[in-house]
């Protein structure tokens, strides 16, 4: 493997490093960005841990031959990097002495905006780091990714800061295009070995994975908004053909059925109910015989929330507000009422429903 | 002559093959010219400052070519032998010789090469048995490493003998390899794991251990020398107490067998495990020592060729130990090379190695603790407390990863940072990770000095940011 050959490099050597060891052909519905197709000699271990992103419907596909020209050393050219990252690379290249480079790196780390402890969660932790590193990602109002990070080790913090500064505020495709090659250009002798101890590599991977996830969630939310406009027309199965193949999920097309618009109190439904919403409604109607029933999908409010991601069976419908008025609650305490509802929705809770916000009253209490 | 004798594999006595012997005699002649300087070496192993008597470390360095290189622009200073040891040329040559001259499957063939290979393989087994003073070479089971050996005991002896409510005593300082197999097996059998914590000397509390023992205890599985604390447990004493309540004892001797005399008769342990790669041998081979009667009573671990007696369609009968526990073709060359490593170590003499390491280890401890803000884990060395030649430590305000990275990239010093496969211990000590510098008999005083200078430089570099 090319990376293994150059791990523990004794000094900065420009080895003929295979380009683009990260991405396979990633196609983006709206932006039609095609990355270089994965060469056969690519490192399998990298591939396994990368989220590949495939288009279901045929769209306009740029032929693979239209790939950007590669540099003589076969690196990802510096021009492809986000502008901030280019600046950082140039800065490090201008600093010759290794010690000074470290000083620079640690300096970056010291000026990293601290990460709120509430974000130091398992989902935000970088795997395979002997030190502890957390990374958080969210969209700004222009759908650029904003990163925050922290670490208990100075060097890792510096690397994290570097990545945060270099990648924050950029759009997702640009971030996904970055390969770890640039680390060589920094001259920090950071090993690019895919070993589990490579914090730098894993940090970059996690940041890219989070960017991708943000994009996917964004697509799903916007697609559900689109279908609302054509609310009485069943929407096609694949909406934009976004399918995320993560190594631990099955691919699931994100689709929205809008069959239930004629039922009940559509007025309170800002977002049309998806299949889970429908199932919840059906179950509650059947079992509780309510006088009033409101089921509101508020998953979008939790889109950035770390726990909301592609787990098995997750179709994006994770958070609901429920308002139920029913005789079935007669004589039961609040806790008991909530218990009843949770028991009825066991299946959903097991399969990706994260939380319910419940108002449960009897007709007399309304 | 002390030091580095080139020991030929003894097979030349089996079937003199003129060409191959000639070949090796030649290489012996070539080598001995580089050894001539050593014949004048004194037999003392003192850590001399002005080298009128050459220390053991200096004497043997020529045998370890890997140590003579530069890393990141500095001379390599290898201080990670607790993770894996370097191998002397004889061991590498033994492995090469095996493949070049008599590679053949063992125990099966009739022909000349296979007879040679089998003899050498079984000779290696005898060498291991002799090295730890086992009463019979049949008490040595070759495994892939110590981890596999412990799993063997857990799955073979453990599954058979542990019943719900039975207790297995471990310490909080055990290596993961001596924790996880017991977790897996206790889940299956309903046995309960109990852990001995550390006392105020930062050593597992043997008094507490004694208190924990009861008729419910079936097994005590403990390290001999700790890979983090450098402490040494009184195994003999523990065995006596354990046997009193009818419990067996398994000793994880990975950090002791390579560094000192380990005598299983004296220890009287029931099981003992070690890995070749920590004792100048190749990776891929290790062994389990088990008392004959115990091994006799144990069912197979892995099934396959070699470990059987007769195989029918619906059942099989199994071989006697040790074969019963050696399924499939073993790591033949590696076992033979381990034998060569044992020869090499024996030539120097384990008491000598141990004596040298106690001195050097003390020196390391003293120099390290003289630096401010350094916290070394484990007991303080004293007349009665001999530490292993390693120090796990933390520097106030400096993450061990930063430390190790800087030491490596700016000074070529190789140490380890992390939890050293002892997460429970680190949790107990209240830290996420630690740095560890570990010595072996090929390290010198200069290595320790280089390390300490590099460490001081590293600390001041990172301090400059505060």
Number of strands of chain B: 17
Got a strand count of chain A?
8
The percentage helix of chain B is 25-40%
Query: How much of the sequence of chain A is in beta strands?
Result: 5-15%
Q: What is the topology, as strand order, of the major beta sheet of chain A?
A: 2-3-4
Question: How many H/I helical runs of chain A?
Answer: 11
Number of helices of chain B: 15
What is the N-to-C order of secondary-structure elements of chain A (H for helix, E for strand)?
HHEHHEEHEHHHEHEEHHE
Let me know the average pLDDT of chain A. Answer: 69
Give start-end ranges of low-pLDDT stretches of chain B.
1-46, 48-52
Protein name (chain A): SufE-like protein 1, chloroplastic/mitochondrial
Pfam families (chain A): BolA, SufE
Organism (chain A): Camelina sativa
Cofactor (chain B): pyridoxal 5'-phosphate
Task: Note down, in words, how this protein is organized.
Chain B: It catalyses: (sulfur carrier)-H + L-cysteine = (sulfur carrier)-SH + L-alanine. Chain B: InterPro entries: Aminotrans_V_dom, Cys_dSase_SufS, PyrdxlP-dep_Trfase, PyrdxlP-dep_Trfase_major, PyrdxlP-dep_Trfase_small. Chain B: Residues 77-451 form the Aminotransferase class V domain. The complex is a heterodimer of chains A (366) and B (466). With 366 residues, chain A is an alpha+beta fold. Chain A contains eleven helices and eight strands. In chain A, the strands form three sheets. A three-stranded antiparallel β-sheet of chain A has the order 2-3-4. In chain A, strands 6-7-8 form a three-stranded mixed β-sheet. Chain B has helices at residues 18-35, 56-60, 89-102, 112-131, 146-161, 180-189, 206-212, 235-244, 264-267, 292-297, 332-348, 350-369, 400-411, 423-429, 445-463; strands spanning 70-71, 74-75, 77-78, 140-143, 167-171, 192-196, 217-223, 248-252, 271-275, 286-290, 308-311, 316-318, 374-376, 390-395, 413-414, 416-418, 434-438. By secondary structure, chain B is of the alpha/beta class. In chain B, β5 (167-171), α6 (180-189) and β6 (192-196) form a beta-alpha-beta unit.
